Amino acid sequence: MLERIPIYELPFGKEGDLAFKIYRVQGAQINRKDYPHKTQLPHKHNYYELCFFTDGGGMHEIDFKTYPIVAPSIHFLKPGQVHLIRRGEQYKGYLIVFSEEFFILRFQNMEIIPGYPLIAHLADGPVLKLDKSGYEKFHHIIEDINQELENNDADTEEIIIAYLKLFFLKLRQNFSKLVKTTGNPQGSTKQIVYRFNQLVDQYHNQIHHVKEYAELLGDSPIRLNRAVKEVTGETASEIIIKRLILEAKRLLLYSELSNKEIAYKLNYEDPSYFSRIFRKKAGYSPSAFREAMRGRYNSNKQ
Prior knowledge:
The chain is an alpha+beta fold and 302 residues long. It folds into 2 domains: 7-178, Regulatory protein AraC (Jelly Rolls, Sandwich); 187-301, Arc Repressor Mutant, subunit A, CATH 1.10.10.60. It contains 11 helices and 10 strands. A hairpin with a 2-residue loop joins β5 and β6 (65-70). α3 packs antiparallel against α4 (156-178). The protein is globular and about 60 Å long.
């Protein structure tokens, strides 16, 4: 049986140091003393991670979806997501990690990529495949940042921030080109949807109704639904349900809570109703999902 899901932290140095690191990785395993955790089983981070795959292959699981590693590409992870990378022996790349506080303080109100509702319906999800030109641009920025980290003089921090802003803007620009919408939503509409998704992340186990989220946003349910549909192609209710199912999957795999206890934890008063929704959306009953996933990861642990 799996243990409770580990949540990894990275030591970003003493207080006042730059809460940002780049790790160059080669081969199937990360064998570095300054990268302190093992990654043989699914896990979470309390920090952002950008996986820049430059060569080789493998598989990357993000929140129960499996994405092939096709180099060159960038895979994006936000804090709290469950993931596991299976690297091939020829794998090469970089792990770019930074704390939530670092991002909030230095890049306030800047979306690294379009908010998750904007990319949730894309086949490749939070994965950006790069052509040769795109690879060279991102790789050049990473090499410049590494050079500045080696210089480590009085201007290093501000120069790194400037390079990172360029990196994030190019990342967002490329993801934005992939997003398919029914029109061309205005910035204000995108911001409403982005904020809605943040609230769903925060309150999914308490609030299930679009009306209540609309009230938190100071908007009407009709306008909120219209904005979400325009930007994501899904209704606000569908976004809420997807987030609830994702949390239920995490609890089924990484806790000993019963189906009934999970239903109550997610604020479903009727556990049988919760089970019906889960089966409809996940294709399994909660118990069958738990058994299948634990069997799968326990076999990989050997």
